[in-house]
Fold this sequence. Notes:
A: alpha+beta; Aldehyde Oxidoreductase, domain 4; five-stranded mixed β-sheet; B: 35% helix
Amino acid sequence: xxxxxxxxxxxxxxxxxxxxxxxxxxxxxxxxxxxxxxxxxxxxxxxxxxxxxxxxxxxxxxxxxxxxxxxxxxxxxxxxxxxxxxxxxxxxxxxxxxxxxxxxxxxxxxxxxxxxxxxxxxxxxxxxxxxxxxxxxxxxxxxxxxxxxxxxxxxxxxxxxxxxxxxxxxxxxxxxxxxxxxxxxxxxxxxxxxxxxxxxxxxxxxxxxxxxxxxxxxxxxxxxxxxxxxxxxxxxxxxxxxxxxxxxxxxxxxxxxxxxxxxxxxxxxxxxxxxxxxxxxxxxxxxxxxxxxxxxxxxxxxxxxxxxxxxxxxxxxxxxxxxxxxxxxxxxxxxxxxxxxxxxxxxxxxxxxxxxxxxxxxxxxxxxxxxxxxxxxxxxxxxxxxxxxxxxxxxxxxxxxxxxxxxxxxxxxxxxxxxxxxxxxxxxxxxxxxxxxxxxxxxxxxxxxxxxxxxxxxxxxxxxxxxxxxxxxxxxxxxxxxxxxxxxxxxxxxxxxxxxxxxxxxxxxxxxxxxxxxxxxxxxxxxxxxxxxxxxxxxxxxxxxxxxxxxxxxxxxxxxxxxxxxxxxxxxxxxxxxxxxxxxxxxxxxxxxxxxxxxxxxxxxxxxxxxxxxxxxxxxxxxxxxxxxxxxxxxxxxxxxxxxxxxxxxxxxxxxxxxxxxxxxxxxxxxxxxxxxxxxxxxxxxxxxxxxxxxxxxxxxxxxxxxxxxxxxxxxxxxxxxxxxxxxxxxxxxxxxxxxxxxxxxxx
Amino acid sequence: xxxxxxxxxxxxxxxxxxxxxxxxxxxxxxxxxxxxxxxxxxxxxxxxxxxxxxxxxxxxxxxxxxxxxxxxxxxxxxxxxxxxxxxxxxxxxxxxxxxxxxxxxxxxxxxxxxxxxxxxxxxxxxxxxxxxxxxxxxxxxxxxxxxxxx
Lengths: 748, 150
């Protein structure tokens, strides 16, 4: 029995009430103490052999007969006006089939662009050329012989603020009386910190292959959201969604930047429509680093007031974000939610700058906010002479303060205890003793908060046939996180079949089984309960059929590890004794994610400790060890989960130590938009990592008890490293990353 | 010779890299292009037994020489022990860098009987991965080494 109900859904802290389809037959949550055969056990990923053998086909690998290749002409200036493009010369290049620029009337609707006559950031698309080969397309771009007049630009934060170049309204949220509380506080600290522009740098650049045929549209897209991409293409090109198929079998990373169809798909489809040929448009690395988005830089001032015992009485946070011309606001989320405080205020403004529009990058805005708030907390602990972890424990809060609602689960205090135990936190001052190698060592901690509860709508179907193979169909896409493996595990667990009897699919809109975008750490807690629901329905039917075959009461039977067993043990037969009799018939089940519990908030929590070694001579900072403990509800696949955390830590470490877009102040153009000068970590930079989970299922949230893990592990790493640097050196660098120049300057 | 078979590639341009020829002319897209400047290692292949970035080698330079790509590493359905170790250790996430990392690890194990952790890091430092955090890549190399010494 299914029903339509009104339910609150959440995506990265944006709440929306909508109608969702729910099932009365959804299984009860697995009890916390129930032993599970597959879920919770280390499982290598289902597509491993395909990926290690080079057989996996990513969007960039799609090759079709007659396919055209696209090269892009991008703005060499932060702001300018195109004065000349020689289209005839480009079209005269052998092999060039089409040229598009801002003067063309495109068949899809777009608020601005995607091809600009007056670009407002370096790297903005000015024109695209489609040709038989990429070499010819690039020759076509050269033949366009761009001339462009420079226009005034602003990329400097101080200049923009002075000129009040502010996007929309300044956001302000508050509770209590912050000014009075600060004035009356026993102890006050104030800290201004800057965070850098960080580039997602997925190894597979953004790209798409579009193929328009007789009103049918097929599009391979390197996207985190195949259904969002389908909606976008259908709407923009005015085609029914049923006539649009989006495929993303393998995606070479996304980290937030690959939302919807993207401009590459829109232009590939446009060019396909005009030329009658399939068209592939893959960003080259320079285009990707210039124009695929970023985590925007911030400047944040945090003021904290506390009692002499360390109880927070005031939190005041002001944020300037360098988002580009427009953006959203969430940097103050940690200031408003992380600690118990009756008086809190967050003010947040986006500055209008001639920069590429920022977009989502793993824990967007919350990572930045935590980086500032957690450094301020560290300063407060030092001022008070309190252990920084004790200060955090003391100000622990078990409700979401802006809404006043309780959390579905919150194991943060257990995270603190476990990370302290693993890292030897209480003995950390021993690191301050002079060392033989002359390096300064220290240890710091930081807390993590993020949403990650998922929710409806999310669907799954399972079909099992005469061959005994259960096929799980989902509408999710695996951007590298291993969610399809988790889906396979949950299905096998619920069905009572061995893992290798279950296959799982995703990354294709054609079956029309909806799955959510891979974002907000929502995929696992959204789709896995739907998969379990579908498996439960199939299992119910199989038990009935087993009753027919074995002349037993279905209620007396169970299916365990591929065998039908009766409660008295008298019957013990392989499940293929039943499925083998299906012939060409199939047993089908469908499941859907139920509504989230009313009146509760679902969040993930965690704490990380970092140990650094600083060379005061060269300014080199090395992270020696990171200990991470997170509360993500039930851990479905410990192998995949630890890998997620390791990857998050490394990206967070890079945010703290090396990743930063540098701009030429005279032109406003990024000077390091390649891989040789934008430093992402290599294997040589990897610190020791100790990872643990407070593996307590969130039974209030969904039927598998899982919360999400994509975002959480990156969030506390930069602040933990910055605080470790402070512990080691007694100084705080007021801007990240801790490059050698900045460290030498800070220690001078 | 590509993966043990003599191959003739049509339509190769003078300016085409070995990577472009493999991917676009010989239907071997296992080697990936992620930077086209020799920084990321995703395009790693063997050229006459030497590990190279195929984006930095001209296609014409491979004429008459032996190329081994990730597609040629397995023996039919039987994966190379390095490939199997990457799966078992959980060293694969999105997998885009994996072909290059697998070849770099294979090269290391071919040159070194018992590399130290430092030597493993040195050998794989030219292969960028944005997902895994590399810890499980180290695990995979250690696992392959342990299995070999058994």
